[in-house]
Amino acid sequence: MRKRVRTLSQPSGKALLKRLEAEKVLPFAATAYWLSLACEDYETCSRDERGVPLDPILAQALPSPAEFERGRMETEDPLGEKEHSVLPRVVHQYPSRVLVRASGDCPLYCRYCFRRSLLPGEEGFIDDSGIEALGRYLEAHREVREVLVSGGEPLTASDSRRESLFSRIRAAGKDLTIRVCTRAPVSLPDRVDAQLVALFRRYRPLKVIIHVNHPAELSPRFEKAAETILDAGLPLLSQTVLLRGINDSTEVLIRLFSRLARLGIDPYYLFQGDLAAGTAHFRVPLSRSLEIYRELRLALSGLELPRLAVDAPDGEGKLFLPESIVVREGDFWILEGPDGRRHRYPEES
Ligand code: SF4
To answer: Is it true that the peptide bond before 27 is cis, omega within 30 degrees of 0?
Structure first.
């Protein structure tokens, strides 16, 4: 973490970093390991006409001028986390699940992150008073069955900080499932060590969900991290975001999901991009996402195929695709959730 790359030396790169700072959006940071996965040098890489790197690894990490444009229906808080916040850093949107943004720091800041406007204000790991308040909230809400420990990156702090959080969750409910949502196995794989998985084991039931987007992320060091988690007997699943120019290809996704399944990782979710401000250049048109998913269903086994899902605009909940689609009306899709409420989602141009 301390050695992350945080500066760019080319004049265009420097200007972009200044603008990110001025507009208080997601800063730039990437581990040297992450940048080493790319096929090009991050300072001089080729970029498309919008200024987005062509390399799928660099495109996820390097800022581009396209981030300063706002797309249709985009907002700073596309999942409506503020509205569903019950405590600072704690979101209770679905009756059975509570989400805690344990840390605002990430080894790699992903340019398409739906919390890109939120993270700059949430540096550091949740403190003791925040942990205690979460514990009391869980004790008062017995309908909760799962606690999603997310971020930022929840594996950034020391194991003792994480232990404080996990032990308070466990004290609040011995049957609560802890769901650790992490990108560290792909951005900082050496973070996954024997001590960390021993901590995970002490707080079972606990599941680890890895955010992974491209086969180039599945390096030998990633495989070792995954193996360490699996060898400890912990369930390991994956979630992937569909990203234009990065993985919007059936062939790339077949390689990704079949390899994850071979490694013992269950592909869980494939997400349509959220309507986060400044991310339109990453979103795959929904029509194309549905086409890719149809092809994936033909090519992958049930064990290899994740569920395609989209978060309804303004935090109205998760919708599965294609079953939530009612009709396409011009440039918008009409989607219907299990509660019968309808939502509009734009088709990207
Ligand atoms: S690691 Fe997760 S929380 Fe951090 S920037 Fe990437 S997507 Fe966002």
So the answer is: no
